[in-house]
Fold each of these.
Amino acid sequence: MTSKSPSLPRACALVGPFASGKTSLLEAMLFACGAIGRQGRIKDGTTIGDASPEARARLMSVEPNMASADYLGEKWTFIDCPGSVEFQQDSYNALMAVDVAVVVCEPDPARAVMVAPVLKFLDQHKIPHLLFVNKIDTAGTRLKETLEALQAVSDRPLIMREIPIREGDAVTGYIDLVSERAYKYRPGQTSAVIKIPDALKGEESAARQEMLEHLADFDDHLMEELLEDIQPPADEIYDDLGKDLTGDLIVPVFFGSAENDGGIHRLLKALRHDAPGPKATAARLGIKAEGGPLAGVFKTVHAAHTGKLSFSRVWRGEFADNQSLDVGRIGGLYVMTGGTPTKVAKAGLGDVCAFGRLDGVATGALIGGAEAAMAAWPEPLSPLFAFALAAEKKGDDVKLTGAIAKLAEEDPSLSLDHGEFGEQILRGQGEIHLQVAIDRLKSRFNMAVVTKKPTVPYKETIRKSTSVHGRHKKQSGGHGQFGDIHIDIAPLPRGSGFHFVDKIVGGVVPRQYIPSVEEGVAEFLHQGPFGFPVVDLQVTLTSGSYHAVDSSDMAFKTAARIAMSEGMPQCDPVLLEPVLAVEISVPSDFTAKAQRIVSGRRGQILGYDAKEGWQGWDAVSAYLPQAEMDDLIVELRSLTMGVGTFSWTFDHLQEISGRVADKVVEARKEALANA
Ligand SMILES: Nc1nc2c(ncn2[C@@H]2O[C@H](COP(=O)(O)OP(=O)(O)OP(=O)(O)O)[C@@H](O)[C@H]2O)c(=O)[nH]1
């Protein structure tokens, strides 16, 4: 027995690589369910999914799109997730809310590696999933090789549920391996039952046997039947398929064509029979069955007409519009069809709905119960790409920060921080990710921004010591100014920062002026001879003199500046560039390419090793100058079919000189002159 509750509403995510056909599949599934009267097309911009202007403009999904439908009297919500690696945070979060995922991919073995990251996520979270090899209508379909390549990137066994019937090059139908029935595709209609072609009988029984042997790995009874050559009853096979899918032990494989209605009903029927229901999913997520109403938020959107929407799955009980909760009153309860919200009065166990205006509630939160947040919620993805940005209209910076905070609440893989040179730095997963955020700033918040590459936080330091005298004296007419000091400037080891030492004896510089000397030095160090902050040095105040009337804080501060301006050039100043410790993750076929990228960017390879928990992947460790990082992810993805990624942390500052340093200093001088 499986623990599914078929009569309760179920939720299914469509995930998989970019442009594999998820939005088209959603459209085909909704059409097959009778939820829409006409099947829209991506190229016509008529699909239910990809409804936002940002998605339509790019012909790609940039956020999850939901739609509900009944299939054979059972309620489903399908969530079409973005395939682009730049929008994976949303896909991962949505996967935490569903009972089952359909991984959509293309019938091309070379592209199988693109499925690896999402399969890894699904297995890490034990989310039941099946594979749908789409675009089976395309010429040169290589199903067998595709499956071999897919198996190489899946930790779980892939189990063919059907085999193709071909006419010439084209796949025209399939044979279901459980029912042993053959079907012929009919575009726009359900497939027609046909006789199993004689030529395929041998292939069919071999494929069926293989499927049964995989299932027998998890069922001793079935194993005994197979050993004794007993044909297991269909019910037993269906039961195993449901149980093993629910336990994320196997990955059943289907194929078809989203755009030409091939295999859609077969897929829907498999979901209907085999996918667990919300009670089993709640148990998998560690949510107790007993207790008051409970819902988990998997996506937050700040929408123009409805205000904040918290997209949620109901895990217990029922919620009603206007209901008062600990976290506030529900200000609108909606179900979504693509980008269109429809108000509903209630949402019950298993439903996917959006709660309006729950201001204090974040993605990942549990609403209604004592539990505050979902256990094992995916960590926000760390940033891989950045823009420095500013409001086009001066004075709009506070408004800009507020708008970005809302976008970051919608998508935790987007973040804003403040750079060392007063820049606001928007970080995210790639250029399109940030461009979409910038489009949304304009369309939703009416905020136009200008962007540039963030300034690399270079530093300066010194290599030699010196002693200098700084005197500031203005004693002609009116109140005079007098400050006079002697300082030693000396280098310190890397990472020491700035130390100020007071060695005044006998009050030659009175106590009250010493902080001003330190301040004057510190202010100078904000911008050294090359225009960058100076670090790793010690300044010692050794001597000086004062004037009883004309000395002041300001005069000693100025004397300190004068001493530093004179002393620093004598200390052999040098530019320091920030170097990051980077770990690049790639499938091992791409390891040599990753190493070449590092060398081509003035990096130092520290080594590489098998990536822990990622069979067939390597982790290349390297030091890379921060100046070489800005488009690293772009090059890495273009050389690794989009799957290569990296993590980074600041590691150390490193001296640079010669042409590289000259170019940096020139650019800095120009930037300061234009500031
Ligand atoms: N030949 C063929 N093309 C298809 C099929 N399904 C989708 N496509 C095409 O594949 C392209 C991508 O389709 P989408 O449905 O947008 O793919 P997606 O997976 O939703 O894309 P993202 O969400 O942006 O990752 C479009 O040009 C579709 O017309 C199919 O069954 N056969």
Note: The chain has five domains: 10-165+250-282, 287-367, 385-452, 459-571, 576-671.
Amino acid sequence: FGPFPYSATGIVCRMTKPAALLLNQETAQVIQAAFRNANFPNITGEKSMRLLGKVAYGLTNIQVNDLSIEQSEVELREDNAIHITIKNVTAIFKGTLTYGYAGAWFLKFFHSVDFEIDSSIDLQINTELRCQKDKVAADASDCYLAFHKLTLHLQGDKEPGWLKQLFTDFISFTLKLVLKREVCKEINFLAQMLANFVQDLAENFVQDGDIKLDISLASAPLIKANYLESHHKGLVLYKNYSGAFSDSVFSPSLLTESRMLYFWLSEHILNSLALAAFLDKRLVLTIRGEKLQALFEAEDTEEQQKAVQMIFQGTSYNDSVAKVWSLSHPQISVQTEGTIVKSLVAVEVSIFPPGEDPKMVLYIEKETTVTIQAAYAEKKLILHPVDSRTEFKAFKCTADPNGNDPSLRNFLQTIISVVGIPEVISSIELTLTSLLNSKGLHLFDIKNPEIITREGYVIVQLDFSFPNHLLLGFLEERL
Ligand SMILES: CCc1cc(Oc2ccnc(N(Cc3cccc(OC(F)(F)C(F)F)c3)C[C@@H](O)C(F)(F)F)n2)ccc1Cl
């Protein structure tokens, strides 16, 4: 049967061990939030003591005070679990202890005193990543607390020995159960909150206006010893149009394990995005003023001056406009050389002589094929055309109605290829960069990102350092 059919997968995200280790440095903040968020119920009970008869006790408004977390280890386990081990969490719980007993002579004696409990705890959290309703679900219910120490300190020095004994032998057992239940419940809750947070952030990231990418899971996340991997549908949704599944096949060997983060994207996604952008009338560019002048006066030759005179007939560039747009859905394919964009493009120049009606002076249709290499540096997307070829499809010029002036055509051919295509690409570059930054990509500290193109797919691989205000911000919202 060949490799497992990933055909429903358009995008694969791989996070390797180095990324997990870096993210693990934020675990301490999550655990601290879990302890702080946990609400501990009052613990009440009674115990009949030898000399004292029935003793009633209550631990009320238990709160965590100081919490210190030394180091936490993270391990990716092949059985689809992320094991986090945190040793020697020291926590001080504070609250009020009320105790009393009805003495033999019906003497009711109740006393309440503030307490502090010193504790040292080992945490073991085995989180499973699952696919639930097509989304990443984090299940951290496999959670253990081991108490090394749990000592009660009562306020003031009157600490009846029998009470400490009662606490040590009896109350602490219940207390451990309550602490484990509440802390693990909160950790599980936060784990799912984090998964939802990433999912929401990601969904917002891959949406703009009516165009969005369905990044719901195509299969359950995979965890290997050195990386974890999620497979997403990667379907382009545009209004009621939704792209068909792609047939490009992902296989794990396409990604290495040396970088922190990998995104594998099938070329089908780029193609569908181009179609959606075309349907959304985004593939239109208007050039006027000095931009237009720069295009038409890129090279100062005799032929150029003649052509400009013929086309603009003395109208200034400020009263002229060039419009460039795709006549058909651009076809995008990906090769090792780069991303190849093939599109039938129309260029129309109109002039608005003052006091006269506007008139269209030039119309050209060309089949353009451009090979583009992409890079990301200084928080900007860089698109570099490495090769372009064009083929005339139609040509109309009022100044030369029957098109028998070859010098004009040659001139236009040159400026479209030499300056026209680069101008269009740089405007796409600026638009995509501002789109990425509007999604907050510039907030991430991305290190040495590589955009690699191969037949049928693109791989984006990178390292990152974690802007902890991102996680802190998330946790503050939660607290
Ligand atoms: C925007 C990155 C991205 C996320 C996708 O969808 C999801 C949904 C849920 N989890 C993930 N994970 C991958 C991932 C890695 C790094 C960043 C990120 O999203 C982000 F929110 F940080 C970014 F959008 F800001 C998502 C995590 C998934 O691999 C795991 F680990 F949960 F299994 N991706 C699909 C495609 C792309 Cl390009």
Note: Residues 11, 13, 15, 129, 136, 198-199, 201-202, 205-206, 215, 221, 228, 230, 232, 261, 263 surround 0SF (CB under 6 Å).
Amino acid sequence: MSTLFLVGCHKTAVETVTSDYQSIEKNFQRVVSVSGLHSLFHKLYQDRIQTLPNRWNYETGVSMVILGTDKYDIRQLVSLRDRFVPTFNLRFVMLNDPVSHWKQILKSIKMEQKLCKLRVRRMNHWMHHHHHEADIKVHEDCQDSDSCEYNLYTMLNHLSNAHRANTEANSTIPNIINDIEFAKILSHYDNELESLPHGLHDKDYYLNLFDNWNFSALNLTTRQLIIGGFHILSTLAEQANIEVSENHLLLLLFTLEASYHQINRFHNFKHAIDVMQATWNLCKILLPENHELTLLICLAAIGHDIGHPGTNNSLFWDECDLSKLFKKTSILENFHFQMFHEIIRTIWPNVLELSTNILIKNQFNKVLDDECIIKKAILATDMSFHSNYVQVLTDKTRSEITTMEIISFIIKAADISNVTRPLDVSAKWAYLITLEFKDCANLQAYNETHEHGFSCEELSLEEIEKLRIIDEKGNNDDDMSFEIELNDNIMKEPFQLLVLLENYPMIPKGQLFFINTFAFEFFNKLSIQFPALKFLIDNINSNKEYWLSKSD
Ligand SMILES: Nc1ncnc2c1ncn2[C@@H]1O[C@@H]2COP(=O)(O)O[C@H]2[C@H]1O
């Protein structure tokens, strides 16, 4: 769904300037007038935290912001988007731009609105597309450019623009963002159905909710995930004596949520909070009272998959920019760290200092300049090094295992902890990863039948038809079909596991493969080295029994 925002101007003015308002209104499902940038960003954040399925997620559409006065600088707005709401497909236009520029913009927005409804094509665009310099130039001198313009999210733009924008702003937070009262956004509801029984300041409720292994992030709304993450991090910051204001910590959580793809099946903000919750509980067992390290590893956990495209490292083209930039090594994990680094250096810089200082203090091998505890933890989640960690658990005695290795074990265990959750919780995650694996297979099929093109070329009708065939039926048009299915038939309580397995009979075999190939050995050896973690392997064994009984 796409929104047309009018900032300090009226519909009639737009009609006059473009003289074809009808085609504009046809492209957008709603028109929202706001008085200024503060209320624009307030509205963006309010929409983003609506309960799923959330049609106003700013990802399955391309929205446009028309600026009625030239007191705003377009580049400043693009920088705000790239730094604080990077996954939002938002285009900024000056009302008095030349009509030729309007025509070019509407043409590209129309094409990209089609593109971002095609899941497979969208993932491919995220991973590989880059906007030529010319696209950026269009903002400056508003000249017509025949290349695809700068509206849809891509990982490369996320990486390069966030870094450049942060550097230009020397990592300060602009007043437009600083003045937003995030507690108010959390407590404002469009309709009473959204109202929470436990609000932002119900700290004990959230700490209890997050303080046990039966936790399921999938049963929480985006609002509750943000509030839970807030209470964990503020408790850890207090214990570690690291300063942070309530509004800044909420800004961090809103920015993190806006940096994950809300429309991903598995690798979304729910997964980020789930991994952070598991990390927090494992730290209490393996690093008791080590508050500084616990804070850093929990931050690494909440940021460990930022901007994840819902695919995997093997699906990146060798010739693409991100493969070359990261030398085809841990492409995703390096990308996640870089993006998280940009957010933290802006919103919570003293944590970055702590992350580097602890590395030096412990003589952990600090090799590169940005080397720090958070980076090492995020890179440890790359499954291509999984066997190395199993080898450490096999070869070393408990006393020989280093603190850095314990940190890696904690975040790795948390990242795949869904298989150690109680069966009903584990089965829901299994469903979601199964859907994501299907997307990956569809993307592979797409890439085998298309040459590797970097520009977001016009989608031909046959291209769209071909994609409907490749991608699952019904997931092409709009992610609402997926969300509605997800929420109506399968994920709602009371959860019906047998209904799930009737619809997805391949799940038991997929879980047995993952448990037998990766999870069992890792958690078994982990629980031998750290007997307090025995409950993890017990849960895996019990889930395995069930999957065996269902995989005739
Ligand atoms: N329940 C599961 N079933 C199958 N694969 C899983 C499951 N949980 C995690 N994984 C895989 O483990 C990987 C851990 O790293 P990623 O999050 O990049 O991607 C994850 C999936 O590929």
Note: The chain has a mean pLDDT of 87.
